[in-house]
Please model this.
Amino acid sequence: MLSKSYSTMSDEDLVKACVRNNTEAQKVLYERYYSRMLALCLRYSDNKDDAKDSLHDGFIAIFSKISSYSGSGSFEGWMRRVFVNLMLMKIRRKDVVKESVNVDDFTWAIPVQENVFDKIRSKDVIKLISEMPQGYRIVFNMVVIEGYSYQEVAKELNISEVSVRSQLSRGRMWLRNKISKMEDMQ
Amino acid sequence: MKDELFDRKIRESVESFQADSDSGLWDSISGALARKRKWMFIKKVSLYGASVAAVLLGVFMIMSPDNEGRLSGSSDFSVLPGEQLSQVVVEEDVLPSQEPLNEDYVVVLQQEVQEVQEVPHKVAADIPVSPTIIAESINENFHSGESFGEELTENKVAKSSENESSPEEDSEYWGVGEELLADDEYFQEELSAPRAKRRPITVSAGGNVSTTGPESAYNFVPGPSFNVGGGHGVKDNHSVTPTSAPNHYFPVSVGVNLSYSFLNDKLSVGIGLNYTYLFSRYEALVDRRYNADVEQSVHYIGIPVNFYYNIIGNEYLTFYANAGGMLERGLRTDYDITTFSGEKMDRYTEPKGVQWSVNAGIGLEYRFINFMGVYLEPRITYYFTDALQPLTVRSEQPLQFNLELGFRFHI
Model:
């Protein structure tokens, strides 16, 4: 197995090698998931520096605890969970989850055309998400991007499901408005 | 656009994000991983080292001829009364003792032996793995120092059949990452919290015991342990002259130490105050008239000066070498005497002169909280004795093995 090129290995084989502290395998996994995990960190962070710090800490956590990956789901799914929980842990430390959000900066959602996403780059969407008010951002990310249920989000953030739905709805409206404005500028 | 479609478009847009990997970030990650592996190695070695030290200490105690921590005396030792005069001054005349003698003096030292147990990393393939089980497995793996079991991965990874993940599948991992991270003390301290502030001054308090070797190792030279007067024609002749090889008990010391580190915490110098208690039993000729059993207690106060060199360590564990010396002064020597006819008496003297010693050893400190740690220092000490010092295990066995245990406060 070791003679095989690491870059062509499946995630499962790379994980096995990582368990044995193989640094080449670790680097391949890092490069394979760098973009996706960076996008995740950017979506939850206030700025790029914080996102890079979280990316650094997240990969260390992943490689340190990779032997705890059970293999019953996808490795990426496990990795995402670890990263999301790391982000939530950091957010909790800042004690900002329960911060009240400013709802005065938008009124009603402006309709968004379907083809607008053809004109907007993914990095701009991520930037917009990272600019969302913190409360909206976490709920929006967890529900829309990560696929958590309302119940899970409520439990994780220690808020009611009603609040989750409310913040998600407001988050969507906030994002729709921003995207519409961006469309207008283009 | 409906919410579902909007969400899907957002999700697709986010998922299509691409960025070139940052090689500088990878260097930082791999460096941190290497440091962590090193830390885990030190932790494991320390655990094994402490276990071995504890076993050795137990062996030392068990090898003592009786269970009281003393060596048995020789019954056929010839009586050779000493004639040497010393500078010892009698402070008190022979008086009948009002205190009953302690028949037994028991020194018991127990050291708990920690065993590192291998924790099997087995997860039955047909049993759903709950987050709790995974978290427990993580705990066990991490605390046992066996985080990277190959067998585990092969078993677990083999179960993975597809790369697609669904919320249902992923919900298995609910909370795992958080528990995983929260449980990892290295992660918490090393990566997430500010590094420990450098604290150049430490205060330590501890105690140590020294071994007593087998009787044959003693360099016992019959002579007076206590003698004043005794010149020809002098009527009052007070003396205690051992007539049998003494039974020396484990010397016990306690002390405090203040040290200051410099050269980026690589080197430290410390000075302290130390008290030592030495206890011996022997048969003696008292006042050249009585054959008696003698219990001798010697109290020393000393000033140790030591240098410490940090060999390797991190903010939790430090492995170091130390060397130095100590100047001690005998405060008092007590003799509890029971003559063979049953008469009891006691005496004491104030030893003159000083006791010099040099020592060298190694030490291991574990800082379980930021400002406090526990340390263990096995060391070899050599005592320079002279005629002014009372008969003790030091005079008969100048080379001693000490094991010191204590707490160190970093301020």
